[in-house]
Write a structure and sequence with these properties.
It comes from Dendrothele bispora (strain CBS 962.96). This is Carbohydrate esterase family 16 protein. Keywords: Hydrolase, Signal. One of its GO terms (molecular function) is hydrolase activity, acting on ester bonds. InterPro entries: GDSL, GDSL_Est/Lipase, SGNH_hydro_sf. By secondary structure, the chain is of the alpha/beta class. It has a domain at about 20-195 and about 210-265: 3-Layer(aba) Sandwich (Rossmann fold), CATH 3.40.50. The protein has helices at about 5-15, 40-45, 70-75, 105-115, 140-145, 160-175, 215-245, 255-265, 265-270, 315-330; strands spanning about 25-30, 80-85, 115-120, 125, 135-140, 180-185, 250-255. The strands form 2 sheets. A 5-stranded parallel beta sheet has the order 2-1-5-6-7, sandwiched between helices. It has a two-stranded antiparallel sheet with strand order 3-4. Strand 6 (about 180-185), helix 7 and strand 7 form a beta-alpha-beta unit. Helix 3 (about 70-75) packs across helix 10 (about 315-330). The longest helix has about 30 residues, at about 215-245. It is globular, with a radius of gyration of 20 Å. It starts with a helix and ends in a 5-residue tail after the last helix. Bound molecules: 2-acetamido-2-deoxy-beta-D-glucopyranose (7 copies). One 2-acetamido-2-deoxy-beta-D-glucopyranose binds next to helix 10.
């Protein structure tokens, strides 16, 4: 056997060795379920540039009402967090256009390139992170299937859930072409458990109009479960492709099942000063037609960690701490989700 064949073989074994190098960095792409402050920075007119790292800004709160879970993940695993998620984002702005913020397929990876790659697009292109020492976490889809898109029948006539799943696979492939080798893909959560996609038809701040609650509720259950099924098999075939091309592995994190577990056993996961509450939410908007009243009637600081949800759509900070702990286990290879 020529020496270079041996080298390639050893390299291949090294890359798939789970017990090899420790993860030191986590790179995140997503939407308001993950974003700490990028969307605020954009609407502030301070478009995030190279090395933007406001993971824990003192004067700003994320869509969970506080500190978003990636910061806790960094704390639990001693990881450096590169959070490129943007509130309101979708997988691909051309497929499901919503707010036109940097999307997961193109806009957010551009920030990764700015921060970690030199001479991008040339023969001297260089990635300044060790592929064995960072994991890419992708968590997207809530806006893609939500209001003003699939659930309200506002998606383009030629866009299907298959396109949404392929977009997520394309994002993983794009990151692999930039040198990433370790990935976690988070499934969509059971969005039918949120107030926005519940059985109720009355107005909410995110959709201040009468609507057919029971139809939304059933539709969302179907959308989320169908897209998750496509994602799961997409991940499987990507792993088969990559195995024969020496390198790259995607773990599927079943956040759907994890959220169901939290929903069913709230006493294990919530620790505020009132009994655990997985059906209500902390942040109140007493007049769904006027967001200026939002915040009146919120739960107290002491009660906050009792709630699974911060508002009608977003998980709470305590749910985020639980997500962070479970993803920490996932990275360590000991999560059952
Ligand atoms: C918003 O702009 C102000 C003033 O320029 C700045 O101090 C603040 O850090 C910005 N906030 C974010 C989230 O970028
Ligand atoms: C945390 O990570 C930093 C940077 O990688 C390292 O220098 C430090 O030793 C780590 N701390 C612990 C407690 O592992
Ligand atoms: C990196 O290079 C590719 C290929 O030339 C190009 O399409 C892309 O826009 C570049 N991205 C950045 C952020 O420079
Ligand atoms: C889908 O329809 C849009 C118009 O809504 C059109 O611009 C686009 O080219 C179509 N895409 C494909 C792949 O046919
Ligand atoms: C939804 O609401 C209807 C009418 O109130 C009720 O009959 C049905 O059982 C509810 N479905 C769920 C899944 O809660
Ligand atoms: C609840 O538990 C988390 C750890 O999961 C902790 O960080 C937080 O401070 C606790 N909250 C309260 C109100 O004790
Ligand atoms: C949960 O919280 C809501 C407030 O959003 C409240 O109306 C409801 O009674 C609480 N449920 C339980 C079981 O405490």
């Amino acid at each position: 056997m020529p020496w270079y064949t041996l080298c390639i073989l050893l390299l291949a074994i090294g890359l798939s060795d789970v017990g090899g190098k420790e993860i030191k960095h986590v790179v995140l792409f997503g939407d308001s379920f993950t974003d700490q402050s990028r969307s605020h920075s954009i609407s502030n007119g301070t478009f995030p540039g190279k090395d933007y790292q406001e993971v824990f800004p003192p004067a700003d709160t994320a869509a969970d009402g506080g500190v978003q879970w990636p910061w806790y993940l960094g704390l639990y695993g001693n990881y450096t967090i590169w959070n490129y998620a943007v509130g309101g984002a979708v997988c691909n702005n051309n497929l499901t256009p919503l707010f036109d913020v940097p999307d997961v397929l193109n806009g957010q990876p551009d920030w990764f390139i700015q921060d970690h790659i030199t001479s991008n697009g040339t023969s001297h292109q260089k990635l300044h992170l060790d592929p064995d020492e960072f994991v890419v976490v992708l968590w997207i889809g809530t806006n893609d299937v939500g209001i003003n898109s699939f659930v309200t029948d506002d998606q383009k006539a030629n866009t299907s859930l298959v396109d949404l799943a392929e977009c997520q696979m394309d994002t993983l492939k794009r990151m692999r072409s930039l040198g990433a080798r370790r990935f976690i893909l988070n499934s969509l959560i059971p969005l039918q458990l949120t107030r926005l996609y519940s059985n109720r038809s009355d107005l909410v701040i995110h959709w201040p109009e009468e609507h057919d609650g029971p139809v939304w509720h059933k539709r969302m259950f179907n959308l989320v479960n169908s897209l998750n099924g496509l994602l799961r098999s997409g991940v499987q075939s990507l792993n088969e492709q990559w195995a024969s091309r020496s390198g790259g592995y995607v773990e599927y994190f079943d956040s759907y099942a994890f959220f169901e577990e939290v929903y069913r056993h709230p006493d294990v996961y919530f620790n505020g000063s009132v009994p655990a509450n997985v059906t209500g939410w902390c942040h109140q908007c007493p007049d769904p037609l006027d967001f200026h009243f939002c915040g009146i009637g919120d739960c107290t600081e002491a009660e906050r960690d009792s709630y699974m949800w911060w508002d009608e759509l977003h998980p709470s900070e305590q749910t985020g701490r639980n997500v962070a702990m479970e993803l920490f286990k996932k990275i360590k290879g000991v999560s059952r989700f």
